[in-house]
Amino acid sequence: MMNFFLETIQVLLLSIWYNVESFIHLFVPFKKKNISGEVVLITGAGSGIGRLMAQEFAALDTVLVLWDINQDGIKETARLAKQSGAKKVYSYLCDCSDRNEVYRMADQVKREAGDVSILVNNAGIVTGKKFMDAPDSLIEKTVEVNSMAHFWTYKAFLPAMIANNHGHLVSIASSAGLIGVNGLADYCASKFAAVGFAESVGLELLATGKDGVKTTIVCPYFINTGMFDGCQTKWPTLLPILDPQYVAKKIINAVLTDQVYLLLPRSMYFIAALKNILPMKQGIVLGQYLGAFSLMDTFRGHSKKQE
Ligand SMILES: NC(=O)c1ccc[n+]([C@@H]2O[C@H](COP(=O)([O-])OP(=O)(O)OC[C@H]3O[C@@H](n4cnc5c(N)ncnc54)[C@H](O)[C@@H]3O)[C@@H](O)[C@H]2O)c1
Prior knowledge:
binds nicotinamide-adenine-dinucleotide, Rossmann fold, alpha/beta, single chain, 7-stranded parallel β-sheet, about 50% helix, about 300 residues
């Protein structure tokens, strides 16, 4: 009985304190950590926000390890990262959906660049077809790149972080990992998996006392990188198509301040919360109002743009 009483008081006091702390941080920015000299691995670094994050990390005096399946893409990112001041840049052709290749390249990274202390799982692909029209091979690939690759990179790089009780796991998921979208079934499944995985391992680490290994889960709405070219947003003020540079900066800031969830734009926090509390029929009406039912109708993506 005494335990129940004491534990309840403790939880109540901590709850009040953490809410006050959050409120204070609306006005006072969090202290940023110093990541100079850290080894940062970015998957899918050959274009889009992977490249921009590489440049941002480079400017913070880090050692960069770049993975991509696009040789020209990583070469260009490596050049830009050096220009931005990276301590050292290592680039590797690595298909992160291939478990054996991930383990092989991880061994090479450890030999050449040392232990990775910031792992950014960023590589991603999208089929862009209605589920029944999507070829099985593309559905499989989407899950392999967008979620299973995260399992293999964690297996490869997390042990050293745990041993040092120091590190940061960054999952570039999506708002499609929080809310289902008409026309994005396999992508949403893969991103929900990425969110659930990163969240669960983060809790596993906390439960074992490894509080020096941080997790950041990033859930952006559309970003203007080409991946979702053709898609239009119905109310750009409420749900703007995001500027890649802005997204990269927000992600780096989230890492530097150990922010666990980063949803972009800000309205996404509200929309995600509403999804879970509104009556279903009202949620559907709201989804239609926000254009969520027709988001993918005009999708072209990278490939069609290049044709
Ligand atoms: N663009 C958006 O609207 C948007 C929105 C939310 C989340 N995201 C996510 O952000 C991440 C980055 O997307 P982006 O917009 O910069 O797209 P992008 O297409 O410009 O970049 C993705 C990169 O991943 C690489 N890649 C693909 N498959 C790979 C594999 N098997 N192994 C290694 N690299 C591989 C590609 O070559 C490319 O360089 C993705 O995970 C994406 O799902 C994008």
